[in-house]
Amino acid sequence: MRATDNPGRVAGFWYLLLVLIGPLRLIYIPNKLFVTGNAGATVNNIAAHEMLFRLGIAADLVGAVVLVLLTLAFYRLFAGVNRNLAVQVVIFGGVMPALIYFVGVVDDFGVLMVVRNADFLSVFDKPQREALALLFLKLRDGQNTAAEMLWGVWLLPLALLVYRSRFLPRFLGVWLALCGFTYIALSLAGTLWPEYQDKVFAISQPAFFGEIALMLWLVIKGAKPPAMDAAAASAAA
Q1: Which is nearest to 153 in space by CA: 175, 189, 173, 177?
Q2: Model pLDDT, residue 188
Q3: Is residue 234 in a domain?
Q4: Residue 175 · residue 213 · CB < 8 Å
């Protein structure tokens, strides 16, 4: 059976690709290169590992495209369940976050300009340039906090689609809804009470595995709407 005969597995493989490349810029690079409260050390680390930092930018650009393709695969899978909810998944989970990714990498390019000592920045002394690089990184963090709202909102219609589909386990829909509300809470905490954002993140870990569970289910077992099963049976007959 071809993978395209199983739209759930197609969506699962796009999801898997996103899970593999997403953490590079979001988790790995900040942990490896960024030094909290030390702009000079952060700039020096980025200068020493410039290609790694550039790979993070490339991962975000590719991830933005994959995100759109993933949500289009979900649209194909769930359009028969509820077309309006499937459209919301594409808009909130694909198009809008992808735009934020493309805007976000501009801040990273700004950091690289500072690290490479662009000629037009010569009017600033070294501590000022380092502070400017840190400003770009903080702006990127702010964009991630804003994007968390969309990371949560798109999971709510997706959770309803999974729950109503009857060709995927309902517990996955409940888990996805919890994950969606958790991302929304994380975004609001980062906006309104940033001092509590790390605590919200720490206690929310179990909810985040809802997306991993859906991804693994789709990759391993796949999913096909009943109408597609019927059409396949007719073609076989």
Answers
A1: 177
A2: 96
A3: no
A4: yes
Query: pTM for the complete prediction?
Result: 0.89
* Cβ atoms of 11 and 74 closer than 8 Å: yes
Q: How far is residue 99's CA from residue 105's CA, in Å, rounded to a whole number?
A: 10
Is position 221 within any domain?
Answer: yes
Q: Is 77 helix (H, G, I), strand (E, B) or coil?
A: helix
pLDDT by residue (tens digit) across 97-140? 999 999 999 999 999 999 988 778 888 888 999 999 999 999 99
Contacting residues for 10 by C-beta, under 8 A, at least 6 apart: 3, 4, 73, 76
In this structure, what DSSP letter does residue 188 have? Answer: H
Confidence at residue 5, expressed as pLDDT on a 0 to 100 scale: 74
Predicted pLDDT of residue 148: 95
**Which range of residues forms the domain containing residue 183?**
6-227
Residue 1 lies in a domain: no
Q: Residue 10 is encoded by which pair of tokens?
A: 């197609």
CB 130 within 8 A of CB 96: no
Which structure tokens are listed for 132?
A: 């400017």
Does 93 score more than 60 pLDDT?
yes
Is the CA virtual torsion 107, 113, 114, 115 positive or negative? positive
Q: Is residue 236 part of a domain?
A: no
Report the number of distinct structural domains present in the chain.
1
Neighbours of 21 (CB within 10 A): 18
| CA–CA separation, 229 and 165 (whole Å) | 14
